[in-house]
Amino acid sequence: QVQLVESGGGLVQAGGSLRLSCTASGHTIFRDTMGWFRQAPGKEREFVGCISWSGGITNYAVALKDRFTISRDNAKNTAYLQMNSLKPDDTAVYYCAARYDYSESYYTDDRDYQNWGQGTQVTVSS
Q: Which of 39, 41, 63, 92 has the least C-beta neighbours within 10 A?
């Protein structure tokens, strides 16, 4: 059974940084596009960014691309979300997701992803 587990969330002051990890078990993400999404209280889940299976293509929400970076280490079966210059508006539960896709493509719609983690809370204090 495929399991994605996010880690690295927590409480950080505005201007700080966090790196989230998403590690897969029961499945290799080698051929998966990996996506990150977030959901703030009272809001819909929104796309943060994604990375193709090779890491050759990344795509980000326009408002986040200057502060967030996605990477992956297929040997470790892990994807990462580096978040810098965090703001209180970044407070949300962050989810990673996987989509089997051997093409160098990116997907911004959460309906395109088959497997999801349970989420990790990120809280940014002002």
A: 41
CA dist 16 and 102 (Å) reads 35
Residues in the chain where the model's pLDDT stays below 70: none
Closest to 121 (Cα-Cα) out of 18, 15, 16, 4: 18
HEC-encoded secondary structure of 42-109: CCCCEEEEEECCCCCCEEECCCCCCCEEEEEEHHHCEEEEEECCCCHHHCEEEEEEEEECCCCCCCCC
pLDDT at 40: 97
CA separation for the pair 84, 123 (Å, rounded): 13
Q: Give the pLDDT confidence score for residue 2 in this predicted structure.
A: 83
**Beta-ladder partners of 123:** 11
In whole angstroms, what is the distance from residue 67 CA to residue 78 CA? 20
Burial class (CB in 10 A: 0-12, 13-18, 19+), 24: buried
Q: Cα–Cα distance between 96 and 3 in angstroms, integer?
A: 11
